[in-house]
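Deliverable D2.4 — example input (structure tokens):
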């Protein structure tokens, strides 16, 4: 089952297909100027008996024409791919009737070196040299705002182009994402991907930055969204109860955003709590906790 290391880059492309154009530009590949980008079906099956499904296919289309980008995410070498990647290009070219390129996104440099090997098909002049995105070729987000600054920063964290073990790297990623004006859903998704790309120590440092330095952009937005939802649901039951419901919803959303898997018993306990002081104490503990036991100590409610 693909994990977050594999699915992270694909999710970034789903959220913003123009990321593909930024990556190709960084590799020196010409893309249609002023192009729009859409996610196409990744299924490039033909009459062949085996299903051929790329991780993603992006269509870039502008006044100059159209370019299809077949995306593969590799977390380890897989020699079977040398047999199917040429087929992906041929079938995508037939399906979309345009130029097509293969771009492989790799988490580590060993896999990237493997992915760069030329695939000899046997036909004269028809050899495939995949375009590879790794720690050395992931473009840095430009200083000026671009259509995919946030996605480039998160992808840089996933490929190792941005060092999350370094304080400057952590600040750069969070500042770039915070400045992008993302929707709440995309902010949560990108925050989750950044945390997943980090080691345990870097993750703790990221969460400390989110709590203290980038509080307005991350923590307060989670809290505000949960509070508004809870207050709207509880307004008919009275102001105090509505506020408590808002704080409870806020806390649950915040814990989920930090990656905690909440059991039903804790979720029900939080939503049933009408004590604002208690909810505040849990929220304070949740900001820096590395386990649920630090927020809800075992035994205090009979657990």
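Example output (designed residues):
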């Amino acid at each position: 089952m693909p994990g977050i290391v594999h699915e992270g880059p694909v999710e970034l492309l789903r959220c913003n297909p123009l990321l593909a154009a930024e990556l190709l530009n960084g590799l020196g590949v010409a893309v249609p100027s002023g192009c729009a980008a859409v996610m196409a079906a990744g299924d490039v099956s033909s009459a062949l008996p085996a299903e051929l499904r790329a991780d993603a296919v992006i269509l870039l289309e502008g006044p100059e024409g159209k370019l299809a980008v077949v995306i593969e995410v590799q977390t380890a070498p897989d020699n079977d791919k040398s047999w199917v990647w040429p087929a992906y290009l041929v079938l995508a070219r037939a399906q979309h009737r345009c130029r097509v390129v293969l771009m492989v996104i790799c988490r580590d440099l060993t896999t990237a070196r493997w992915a760069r090997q030329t695939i000899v098909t046997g036909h004269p002049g028809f050899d495939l040299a995949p375009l590879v995105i790794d720690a050395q070729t992931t473009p840095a987000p430009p200083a000026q705002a671009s259509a995919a600054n946030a996605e480039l920063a998160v992808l840089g964290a996933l490929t190792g182009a941005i060092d999350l073990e370094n304080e400057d790297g952590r600040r750069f990623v969070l500042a770039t994402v915070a400045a992008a004006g993302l929707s709440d859903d995309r902010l949560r998704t990108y925050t989750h991907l950044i945390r997943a790309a980090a080691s345990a120590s870097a993750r703790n440092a990221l969460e400390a930055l989110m709590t203290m330095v980038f509080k307005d952009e991350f923590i307060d937005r989670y809290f505000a969204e949960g509070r508004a939802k809870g207050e709207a649901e509880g307004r008919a039951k009275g102001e105090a109860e509505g506020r408590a419901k808002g704080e409870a919803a806020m806390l649950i959303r915040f814990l989920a955003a930090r990656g905690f898997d909440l059991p039903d018993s804790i979720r029900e306990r939080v939503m049933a709590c009408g004590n604002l002081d208690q909810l505040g104490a849990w929220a304070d503990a949740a900001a820096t906790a590395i386990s649920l036991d630090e927020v809800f100590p075992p035994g205090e409610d009979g657990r």
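Residues 286 and 295 are 6 Å apart (CA to CA).
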